[in-house]
Structure formats: C-alpha cells, structure tokens
User: Fold this.
Amino acid sequence: MRILIVGDGGRESAIAKKLAGDSRITKMFFAKGNATTEELGENVYDAKTVVELRDFAIKNKVDLTIVGPEATLVDGIVDEFTNHELKIFGAKQRAATLEGSKAFSKKFMQTYGIKTAQAVVFDSYPDAKEYLQKQKFPLVIKASGLAGGKGVVICENLEQADATLEDFMIRRIYGDSGIQVIIEDYLEGFEASIIAFSNGEKLFPCIPVKDYKKVGNGDKGANTGGMGSVAPSPQFNDEHMQDFEKNILQPTLEGLKAEHLQFKGFIFFGLMVTKNGCHLLEYNMRLGDPETQVIMPLLENNLLDVIQDCLDGKELDLKFKDEKAVCLVMCSGGYPRNIETGFEIVGIDKVKDSQVLFAGAAYKGNKIVTAGGRVLNLVATGDTYEEARQKVYEDALTINFDYGFYREDIAKF
Ligand code: AMP
Ligand code: GLY
Assistant:
C-alpha cells in the first residue's frame, strides 16, 4: 500500500510512527511533512491545495490518504478524493463545517439536545452589542469561523466584551471568520479531549486525554495549540464517560444521521466538565495535536486495520494499554506569538527513554533546524504518570536549540 498523510505537525509524526513498520505499507508520502516524516518516507512540498493533492494521489498511485489538519477537510478534500474513487479517511466537507463554523455546530448541538453551554449566535453587530449590556460576566465570545485556535475570548467585563466584539465583527481581525459570533455562558471546570473513530454508522471513542493549552506553567498566559498532553486524563472517570456517552456522543450520532453528515474519519470532542457534568465546547473533525501523540502509543490495535475497518463500515473493538503516556512539547522562543526559526537542534542522539516526534522542524542538509512554533514532542509511557513524566523531562535536558522552552508542569498533579 502507498499512503499519503496530509499535514506537518507532531500529530502527523505520531500517525506516521504508528504506521511505520507495517509490512503492508510500501511507501509513505507526507504533504508537507517534517523532519520525522522525512526519515520515514517522502515529504512532498508542491501539493498544497485539494486539487494538487488529488493530482498527486492519482499520479503516485496512492492507495489511502489520511488527513491531519482541519483546513484541508473544510476545503473539501474528502469529497474531491471520493469523487475520483481515491480512498481517504476524514470528514466530508459538510461534516467538517461542524468545526469550520461554530455557529453551525452550536445550532447542531441545540437541535439535537447535546449538552453544551447556553449561547446565542449573532450576525448583526448592533444586536450583539445590545445583548452584551444585559449579560453577567465572565462570558465567552467566539468568532464562528476558523481562527487557528485564537478566535475565543473569555471576557471578564463589558468593556473587554465590547472591544472583542469590535475586533471580530468590525475590525475583522480574523477576516470573514468574525462575520458571525457566538456569545456563550462561561463554564467552570476541567477540560478533556475525546477522539472517536467513525465507521460511517457508529462512533468509537478512544481514551480521554488531558491537553495543556496555555503557554505558561500553572496554566498561565496565552492559549496555544497545546504544550503537552497526558493519557488517560487523570480527572475523567468512568462516571464522566457514561455521562459523555449518553448526553454528548449518542445525540451527536443521532444528529449526524438526521442531517446526513455521516463520514468515515475522526471526530474530536472538546469537553468542559463542570459540577453539572460534561458539556461540549467544540467539535474538531480530526485528530487533536498533541492528543494524538499520547493516544497512539497506548492504542493496542493496528492503526491501519482500524482505519481499514472504518472504511469498510465494520465494528471496532478498540483496546488501550493499561499504562500512562505523557507528551511534552518543546517550542521556539516567543511562541505562540512572534518566533524566529532556523536554529539547529542538537542532542537528539542522547535521548534515552522518549520517542522524539518532530513538528516544526526540518532537515537542512544533515542538520535539523527549527521551522515552527511547536518544534518537537517528547513522548514516553510508564506504569505511572510520574514514571512517564520523568522520562520526558530527563530527555528534554539533553535537547538544545536557541531560545527553546517548554512547560515544567506537564503531568504534575
Ligand atoms: P473552543 O475553540 O470553543 O474549544 O474554545 C477554546 C478554549 O476556550 C477552550 O479549550 C476553553 O479553554 C475555552 N472555552 C471555550 N468555551 C468556553 C466556555 N463556554 N466556558 C469556559 N471556557 C471556554
Ligand atoms: N489540542 C487541541 C487541538 O488539536 O485542537
């Protein structure tokens, strides 16, 4: 089999490592990949749009394509590939709207009784501004469209809410993504990520994951793509799982069926668990990053078999090791704001107990240099969180690149 993986992050490195060594796979292509994927296959730099990727897949006789990032799904890659009888694993364009439009997904949640925060969707700036006058704070304002994870602001007071509304709807700091906004009740609790495989009929959830979203220790500072992750989430217990299945997973499946949105791919539930149980904050129609990095080492099933079974509409029996996994993300100085790249990464050869997954890192000749905000991930497993945690932190000490940094408190409970 010849496989194409779309994306270039640590998530795609984790998928690639999981598939590598499967004797059925003769070649892996990555568009555009990174330093890890270059070691496992061929990075492809000139196929970026859906049409270019389709032509690449046809020309290179790709048997299966797996899609990492949301933008490519929202652009309709799955529909385009399917129309050309190319096998692909991911959400179709209409289903991807559940991630691409928060207004659409909020309406979907409300229609199908999926437990979520109370919210109102606005297209009109004056109406939204007027609504704010009567609200209690804190509250949450979200740009409806994709904004690279930055389109959500927790507003502490009316002044900040007014400014956010103006940024989104008038100044359009996220372009058309801010044409519609969602004004939502603030929920207090802990967050958990659950990713499920869809076989077109049913959803099969993986173990719950804890993602560390804030840049600084103690969950301080700006939101990021994710600074680390732990699986299984130490906070999410069996009772939470039952609550999730009944009030979120099941009604989601009913909604997908009723709206003819079924697909064969991944669906990610971003949850807030309050004292009143699980609430759905958002859907992502893909694997999470850095959630994937801790799910893959614990997944006992063969990943290619699981994907193949989903594509064939078969039932899954997902099994996970009874171990803990920790992922530490090492970043470029300045992340998630302005970063400089091109610094050599040294010390990888001294890493002992962790898997190194490159993300924003690329080969330059024989050297590996930084090429993005989240540079690399260290992933380790152990019988306890502490054991896995010590492995990644000891290995982090051996790796160096100028201005690099990481959080000190991943998996420290
Ligand atoms: P979202 O993209 O909708 O998941 O929002 C990004 C982040 O904003 C979430 O991971 C939460 O940390 C936070 N957030 C979103 N909605 C709420 C809410 N209703 N209450 C509290 N925090 C929220
Ligand atoms: N870690 C959350 C995400 O992938 O969006």
In short: The chain has 13 helices and 20 strands. Residues 184 and 392 are 37 Å apart (CA to CA).
